[in-house]
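User: Continuing from earlier, I have the next pair ready.

Assistant: Great, send them over.

User: Here they are, in order.

Assistant: Folding the first of the pair now:
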Amino acid sequence: MLSLLGSTPVVSLNALTSRLTTLRDGPHGRPEINVKLESTNPGWSVKARPAVNMLHEAELRGDINPNTVIVESSSGNTAIAMAMVSAMKGYRFKPVVDVKMPQAKLDLLRVFGAEVELVGDPNVPPDEQDMVELKKERRATVQRLVRELGSDAYSPNQYQNPDNAGAHVLSTGPELLEQLGGEIDAIILPISTGGQLNGIGRFIKEHVPSCLLVGTEPIGSTILQKFEGSYYNAGSGLDYAPVPVEAMVADGLVDEAWAVPDDASFKTSRVLAKTTGALLGPTTGMQVFAALALALERPELKSIAVIGCDDGRAYVPDMMAAQRADELDTVEELEADLHAFNAARRSLERPPHATAVGWEQSAATAAKA
């Protein structure tokens, strides 16, 4: 199974972009948006790569033995990948997850034999529970379990572990660069744990310094944005900046940080399914929304790359619940939303000495309104 990891395909979104009537031709024609389909990995997500790498490197260091209990906080995909690998290798695995995780993903964890630690109140509807507080509770639960298990516990801690980003430096970044013939004018990545940002992003920026790197997070997440509020797109948001994200910002490798409303992320995922046949989750929807907005604003960009984080089937109930009664999920509706988002971002003039990261926050609030 593990030999099937990587070498994931890239699909063009021309079937969607060709229907955007206001997308202008640049000097190279219309911008082309390509999505790397990480859903074809074992474990069905991009997180399979760092999960395998983090556990492999821990084995080499002697941090894991047959009696080890692996403990990790996750919004879903890392936990599923670690559950899969732990099942193959015979390790006990305790994923700490919250009530906003789709039921299909909770079931997957249990199918793989994971001993699920669920935080949040199961008697309160998930959409009424605050994502920030749930993530704080997850972190506290990991610390408690590690204390209780003592020397038998090992927490990979994807939020600080360099082997998270290292997996993408070893494989995802090089694959993407080769598949696109070395031509990437812009790349959109979720900010999240910083694994993709500091792995794929750093690799691409080192090989194509002119590439524009845009980090995305949902409105309400406060990794690089400063807005308080709740969000549902759990896999791409946090209430603090993990070490890998801080490193990218300190090195000046994040050109811009955008906050995308949850409804835009879910809607983009639904429209993608209708127009391209690619059923992808809301984190990918968030990135594609940003990529489309960028293409409309910067038609001179020839090639825009996006990572298709995972398979969308587990999110279908959430996708449909997020659809308003008056939404038809047409390309025309999406195009109008994209222009409204760009107009909100342009409505605020960037201060003369403002850094790229952090300035977008006011525009994001306007876009949400």
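And the other member of the pair:
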Amino acid sequence: MKSHLIRLAAVAAVAVATAGFGASAAFAQPAMTTIRLGDQPGAEVSYAAVWVAEGLGYFEQEGIKIERKTYANGPAALLDMPSGSIDAVMAAIAPFMQFVARGGDVKMVLSLTKGNAALVGLKKYTTYKQLDGKNVGTPGIGTVHDAMLGYAERTMGFKVHRVFGKISDISVMIDKGEVEAFIGWEPAAAMAISQNAKLHYIAQLPPIPNSESLELGFSPKMTKEHPELVTRFVRATLRGMNYIKTQPKEKIAEILAKKMNDPKAVPIIMDAMGSVILTEPRLDMPSTRILLQTIAQQGKIPEDLVKDVDGWVGKYVDYKYLDQAQASLK
């Protein structure tokens, strides 16, 4: 009788723990599933929802282990998806839609970040327009940052000379006189400022309000063959967003600094968090329309595709997993 009661108590304890995490099926699975996830260097703040969730053990509770694969930029990560080398990519809306415009296929399941296009440069510059005729660095022609720079040029009436470079080389490029400023993601932008007293934020926020930046996209193979795994990944990420929404910035910065293997980076990360919105899981369509129309005007995608931006983007966004994850967390 005593052993029977012990078994019942154990079952009840498991049931309570499982209910607390949205009744994930993963809790009944002893084996972990590895998700190969593509991202970019110096982007821990940009992808804070995922890395905070990982640091707090939320993915482990869902039976997921992340294998991080870092690429120079979003377009490079997406180009590797068809090979089967990665299961999911974190990248910006511009490279995602350029990827599908060229025949690629992906399912975007969640928006991770808004903003995230900080313009860093010499302190003598305080506006975008002052960079007219100057050399300005971007992390690549297919990035959302290059698109944002193009939007600023068109709407503010100036023109820069683009210099493509590694996001980690901002400070060095400016010190060498190769560029006067660099538009990029966080915390790489804040890190450059901390490394070089000549630098500051010319504009920490992009010129488009609530500007759509980064999404989480899965390969069609993964969404077709393992839809429940995608939902569990999204649920863990949502819990990361909820933590960011409710906890002090310093706590979040400490988790991200640990991910960066740099405990001293906490104040840098806290500065970088002023450049991003990390808790809105659905795409901001007004800014998405502007960005995609901008890259069409730049000749990066056919203009026919942006006659109906909402309809085109809607073919590659699937909120089913987000809806399921949100329902399970209520």
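Worth noting for the second one:
Confidence is low (pLDDT under 50) at residues 1-27. The first strand starts at residue 33 and ends at 39.
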